[in-house]
Amino acid sequence: MTAHFPDLANAHVFITGGGSGIGAALTEAFLRQKAKVSFVGRSDYSDFADEMKDKTGAKPLFIQCDVTDTKALHAAMDKAVAEQGPLKVQINNAAADTRMDPADVTVEDWDKQIAVNLRHYFFACQKAGALMKDGGSIINFSSASYQIAGEQLAPYVSSNAGILGLTRSLARDWGPRGIRVNAISPGLVLTQKQIEEVHTEDDLADFRMRQCIDKNLYPEDVPGTALFLASDLSRMMTAQCLFIDGGLAFTG
């Protein structure tokens, strides 16, 4: 990462799911911009927070929290503001791309997937809107899966399409208050989970063939776009969705 965003220094950034995968890359990228980073995760990411201090010289504030527990999420955001100062950037990233045959999806399955992949986005945005007294930037992570008809992902894909509607609606509602709301839609990003549990080399070769850029995507390919959307360099951008997918969604 070579780009420097001076206005992000000392800005408070709150990230859901900031301890692994793309979220971990986001946490590190903003710390390297000298931002104050707070993040939540369902698992214990205390060791990761310590690792970030060793790598970047600054330790993020980690609060263990299940994002589907709205009261706990709002309490975590209040705690972060109390300890790190006014909220400038909210990044909603936590997600679960559980694959299931649509014929087997139960009401419980559906509700659980919507809760983590869409419902928490709205209530995190709601709280961020209340905390951003002097404007700010909200970035919602969607997925290119809703553009390419992802297989056995009906609740997840539905959620990610909904995130775009949510982003545009809130951008309209909160634009007069100086709060920008944008989205990022990554393609197939090779997190450790994707490498270990989901995709074979044949899958990856197929995705690369369908992309315009014949290369795998990795978590470190994502944060640069988030830094730009968080920075005042994008001060007149809102209600937009930027794809980081090697050209897959609109050509593959």
UniProtKB/TrEMBL annotation:
Q: Where is the Ketoreductase domain?
A: 11-187
InterPro entries in the record = KR_dom, NAD(P)-bd_dom_sf, SDR_fam
Alphabetical keyword list: Oxidoreductase
Q: Which GO terms describe its molecular function?
A: oxidoreductase activity, acting on the CH-OH group of donors, NAD or NADP as acceptor
- Could you tell me which Pfam families the record lists for this protein? adh_short_C2
Which family would the database say this protein is a member of?
A: Belongs to the short-chain dehydrogenases/reductases (SDR) family.
Q: What is this protein called?
A: NAD(P)-dependent dehydrogenase, short-chain alcohol dehydrogenase family
Q: Which organism is it from?
A: Loktanella atrilutea
